[in-house]
Amino acid sequence: MAGFPGAHAERSDADYVVVGAPLDRSTTYQPGTRFGPGRIRAVAESFEDYDHHTDSRFTALDVHDHGDVHPGGDVEEYLTFLEGVVGDADRDGAVPLLLGGEHTVTVAAVRALEPDVFVCLDAHLDLREEFGGDPYSHSTVTRHALSVAEEAVILGARAGSEREWERAAAADVTVVPPEEVPDWDPAFDREVYLSVDIDAADPGFAPGTGTLEPFGLDPATMERVVRTVAPQAVGADVVEVNDQDDDQAAVLGAKLARSVVFAHADARTDR
């Protein structure tokens, strides 16, 4: 498996650790998220090294690619192991960046990093207790995150069950609808975990995802959010990319993953 293009640092020297998490077990429409990490790495090969927003080069940043953590038969065991990998990166002083894989992998990272705020770009609320009897369905991620984080901010949400919308009305959840995301400005100054579910994008931009939902975000809006939130992030992920399109979703996901690193590193330099 080829590593993330531009990642070259040894693990001991890394400021950022890329971890592939190709879990693909609970997708409700289009499967294929097991191919997400590989597709994201492959398409990133075409990107310019230089980022004009931060006047920096990706290859000048200390990024290490851990490779993929492959799932076994039991999802709870897998999440526990993945939590350990993410926690190790954090303890070594690096910012973990997960490449999914279905959104369930986010649960492991949030448990490992214990952020104050869970910020998620997502078409769906993901506040279910379970789906089809599965308490670790990809549609339960925000609920799991709220067992660790003090609050959740869901940007671009436009779908959920009646009970999910009722739960979303509680004080610890903020839902920003797609039409308001371009003007959204974070009002917190605490540690954040940033999760990018690629289905936050309108399917016209990223059809290669499991559960498509029209009337979503445009890529420029998503990048603005990522670059705004990344400086406060203790970890991040890009999830729900599959192989069911011509790599539109993977290209967007790869670009947003790099934007996390560029924006976080730039803020670290300014401190």
TrEMBL record:
Task: Specify which residues bind Mn(2+) 2 according to the UniProt entry for this protein.
Answer: 124, 126
One GO term in the molecular function aspect is: agmatinase activity
Q: Per the UniProt entry, what is one GO biological process?
A: putrescine biosynthetic process from arginine, via agmatine
Which one Pfam family would you cite for this protein? Answer: Arginase
**Which PROSITE patterns would you find in this protein's record?**
ARGINASE_1, ARGINASE_2
- Tell me its cofactors: Mn(2+)
> Could you give the cofactor binding note from the entry?
Binds 2 manganese ions per subunit.
- Enumerate the residues binding Mn(2+) 1: 103, 122, 197, 199
Keywords, in A-Z order: Hydrolase, Manganese, Metal-binding
The record's comment on protein family reads: Belongs to the arginase family. Agmatinase subfamily.
NCBIfam families the record matches: agmatinase
Name of the protein in question? Arginase family enzyme
Q: What is the lineage of its organism?
A: Archaea, Methanobacteriati, Methanobacteriota, Stenosarchaea group, Halobacteria
The protein's gene is named speB
